[in-house]
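Bit of a strange request maybe. I'm writing a small parser for structure token strings and I need a real example to test against, not something I typed by hand. Could someone generate the tokens for this chain?
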Amino acid sequence: MGENAQGDAHVVDMLRADHGQIRELLSRLEMADKAEQDRVLADLFLDLRIFSVLEQQFFYPSLSPIVDEKQILELGKELYFMLTLMLELESTYASEEPLQTTLAQLRVCFDQHVTKDEGLFKQMERWAVDCRSQLSIVADKMEVYRVELKQKLCRNFKAQCQNSFAPPALVHRRCA
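Reply from user aminoacidic:
Good idea to test on real output. This should exercise your parser:
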């Protein structure tokens, strides 16, 4: 595989790994008992926020020369809506009915989003070499920013937990 195809594959592999991780967390949340729900929700919210930021700040802008701007805006709106659902999940998790309803809605939205991402990945296979080489740079930026963003979000989370007396194990697990 040439350098350009490697950059292409690297971005796609990163995003597919994120898709898989978020799907796994959604499945774990569906099966979690009350004691585990807080941990899984915290992990899901952290991963979904990081995924959303990486797609919106790096991946989608790199597609702008090739993909219709309306399509990119629509994908961004979907990510925002999923984050809104996550906030709803975090605020209603103590009640079984809203949790299951919101969780089901989040799963459907996320699955639809993944399907659209996969369509973009297929489009990328047909791109000219110069556009694909840009993805190698995007992949490197995404890797660096993922680490920085997780550190920042974890610092904020740790500060929130200190104010709310959250168990240290929860802070460590979420930010490990």
